[in-house]
Here is the input.
Amino acid sequence: MVTNSSSRAVGVGRLLIAVYGILALGATARSFVQIVERFDEAPLAYTLSAVSAIVYIAATVALIAPGRAWYLVAWVTICFELTGVLVVGTLSITHPELFAHASVWSLFGAGYLFVPLVIPMLGLVWLYVRRPSAVQPAAPASATQ
Amino acid sequence: MIEWFTYAQVGIAVAAGLLCVVLGLLGRPPQDLTMGAALLVEVLLIVQLIVSLAAPAFGNNPTGSLLEFYLYLVSAILLLPLAGVWALTERNRWSTVILGAACLAIAIMVYRMNEIWIVELA
Here is the structure.
């Protein structure tokens, strides 16, 4: 089954990537609407939405693309997302006046069924499981489950 | 948007999504049943597009942002074909779960579209 050149887009990893793709699509579309229709109402929240959307796209691409460089990009973007959702999630509770307008990360992503909180954690676990040093010898055996 | 049709559509998308997720987790690769359920969800989205385009001519106008509404609708229509191609390039149990996840995302998007059409004021 392992005909794919990437060591990350296999098995359950494809599900992870699919969810990332859906999240990237949703965040991008929503941020586009926010910026086009009412950017001046909440520049901070809407800029954040746009940045998070771009990072979700980057993470999706980095998870699909093979190679060590993309592996590193995946680590950086997913860590950024996890930090973002934790920091913004906390701030949106302690300083709600900063985030009167919703962003993907407000209230730990409650508006997106907490997917933005859970998916980076699963992403980091997946990156660890499929780390380049671990998968090279074992790839054919573990990828078809 | 027609309210009963929209709720039926959300219900069918949730049912199709759960069906695919459960059968996928049970280890089934995509079959006629799961592919058919996903196809039904996609066909209903196309019907929804036609209904939404026609509705204003019958005095049924959206209360919220039309831009946001159509971004949701177009994204939802593109979602299953994209997820389907992605899922089926490696055909196993996870392909079925991916189809299910896409159907569940579509259910949420249609629900949100309904809010934009009948609840929110622009």
User: Anything to note?
Assistant: The interface with chain A takes residues 65, 67-68, 71-72, 75, 79, 82-83, 86-87, 89-90, 92, 94-95, 97-98, 101-102, 105, 108-109 of chain B (CB under 8 Å). Helices of chain B lie at 3-25, 32-54, 66-88, 93-118. The first helix of chain B runs from residue 3 to 25.
